[in-house]
Amino acid sequence: MDAITSGPDVEKLIHLKTLYLGPDELLVAAKIALTSDKTVREAAADIDEIEKRIRDAVPIARAIYIEPDIYRPAIDPTPPTDVFVLKSSD
């Protein structure tokens, strides 16, 4: 996970899946939040850098799929508990 989030290019790791395919092969799939002002060229360069960091950290990561997105906290399936409001009956 640090290989994905350690650079300035990732705003948030939204979702990560890995699948062990064999003795020398790991599949990594991640959905990441990039800032909304990125061009397609900048997003592609960021993804290339993330893939390089993953391969440096985990050499058996052969198939890497990175899906760029924009993080929208309103649809976060695990919001922090301080967002819940309990109404009193008094």
UniProtKB/TrEMBL annotation:
Checking InterPro entries in the record gives: Cation_efflux_CTD, Cation_efflux_CTD_sf
Source organism, top-level taxon: Bacteria
Q: What is a single Pfam family found in this protein's UniProt entry?
A: ZT_dimer
What region holds the Cation efflux protein cytoplasmic domain?
3-66
Listed SUPFAM superfamilies:
Cation efflux protein cytoplasmic domain-like (SSF160240)
Task: Locate the transmembrane regions by residue number.
Answer: none
User: This protein is called what?
Assistant: Divalent metal cation (Fe/Co/Zn/Cd) transporter
Species the sequence originates in:
Microbacterium murale
